[in-house]
Design brief:
The chain is of the alpha/beta class and about 375 residues long. Helices cover about 45% and strands about 10% of the residues. A 5-stranded mixed beta sheet has the order 1-4-7-8-9, with helices on both faces. Strands 2-3 form a two-stranded parallel ribbon. Helix 4 runs antiparallel to helix 7, helix 8 packs antiparallel against helix 13 and helix 9 packs antiparallel against helix 11. It starts with 8 loop residues before the first strand and ends in a 17-residue tail after the last helix.
Length: about 375
């Protein structure tokens, strides 16, 4: 493997990839000028995953396998794990075909079903709000991490897209779209259609993953497909954010694991690479730690960003965060989503989009200060 890849996205491109874009342009995913130098990365890193290390007898993910820093969030994650199981019903309720079926049923049964659906949603909403409250009380989290966690939990209960995207996603609930602007996920550049177009593959990602599993496609190839789709969305986020083709230090690290080794090693490698990104941000801002352990920050300078990480392993995505302002901070598990669950496909895709958009905020805010890359990478999406 050996290198942080394009803008923090680490990708192990192999021969025989299912998409010609990946094989034809694999070199463009390696380390280049607007990422870190190869000298900063251990060339011996090769990351694998053991299926038994992350799946319990009940089929649920064991968060403790990600390392000691994850244990403090275990009780919180247990409380939200079940909530995601029923989110898919929201989309079904707004599916035109399902509405036609209901019209042929007994009106009383239809009314009863809708009342039960409303009660279920209210119950889930209360549970998620409780999880958010306890997450904040838990403490020790960066403010941006708390905001992203809240957006992830509320992603089926609040507006996150501009209303202009509604025509592109007619089966999604109206409540996900806003006419007021300033939604969490939106377009910033002139091409308003590009945002909805970039999002569509993420919303169908879980369905495709499920189909590949059913077809006995090897896990490594499935994870490669997941990584490629996330990489394309990261590229869109940089273009739309106005800093694609400029020299910048990423605030997002995406890591695709392989299927033949221990998960704790994956956690170790991903943590070290995220900490390396944090160190580069501190150095760029003149932040340093003296011999006594005191951190010196320019009071007139900007704060370094929260570093985000996405680990792709066993057809799942694990969202990590690291406070780059604190040299002694650990990498923490924020959330995880099972991409093999096709019934949660829309919500899994939205979750990935939320994290990627959150990670671009820092470089988007300083885009006018960034230098143009004189030797830009080949754009696989051009």
């Amino acid at each position: 493997m050996g290198a942080l890849a394009l803008n923090g996205v680490e990708e192990n491109v192999e021969a025989g990839s299912e998409d010609s874009r990946d094989t034809e342009h694999s070199d463009s995913m390696e380390l280049e000028s607007n990422s870190l130098s190869e000298e900063d990365v251990d060339p011996e890193y090769e990351v694998f995953v053991d299926r038994n290390a992350v799946t319990s007898a009940s089929g649920r993910y064991k968060r403790e396998s990600l390392g000691e820093e994850v244990e403090e969030s275990e009780q919180l994650m247990d409380s939200v794990e079940d909530d995601d199981e029923s989110s898919s019903g929201v989309v079904a309720a707004y599916n035109p075909s399902s509405e036609e079926d209901e019209s042929e049923d007994d009106p009383e049964l239809v009314a009863e079903a809708k009342a039960q659906e409303l009660l279920t949603r209210q119950t889930l909403l209360a549970r998620r709000q409780d999880a958010i409250s306890r997450f904040k009380v838990e403490g020790g989290w960066h403010p941006d991490a708390m905001n992203v966690f809240e957006r992830l939990e509320m992603r089926s209960y609040e507006a996150i897209f501009p209303w202009s995207w509604k025509m592109d996603f007619p089966t999604l609930p109206d409540l996900l779209f806003s006419t007021e602007g300033n939604t969490f996920i939106t377009n910033n550049e002139k091409n308003a259609a590009s945002g909805a177009k970039a999002l569509q593959p993420l919303l169908s990602l879980s369905l495709t993953v499920h189909e590949k599993i059913e077809a006995n496609v090897p896990e490594d190839r499935i994870n490669m497909f997941i990584a490629r789709e996330i990489k394309h969305y990261v590229t869109w986020s940089e273009r739309d954010g106005g800093f694609f083709g400029k020299r910048f230090i990423p605030a997002l690290y995406v890591h695709r694991a392989k299927a033949i080794d221990k998960f704790d090693f994956i956690s170790k490698v991903a943590s070290e690479q995220m900490m390396l990104l944090a160190q580069r941000h501190r150095e760029a801002l003149g932040i340093f730690e003296d011999a006594n352990g005191n951190v010196h920050i320019d009071p007139n300078g900007r704060a370094p960003p929260l570093i985000y990480g996405i680990i792709i392993a066993q057809e799942k995505v694990f969202f990590m965060t690291h406070d780059s302002a604190d040299p002694r901070a650990t990498v923490k598990l924020l959330h995880h989503f099972d991409l093999s669950d096709k019934d949660e496909g829309v919500w899994n895709g939205i979750a990935i989009a939320l994290l990627v958009v959150a990670a671009r905020q820092y470089n988007m805010a300083i885009k006018d200060e960034l230098e143009t890359d004189d030797d830009p990478l080949t754009d696989v999406d051009a």
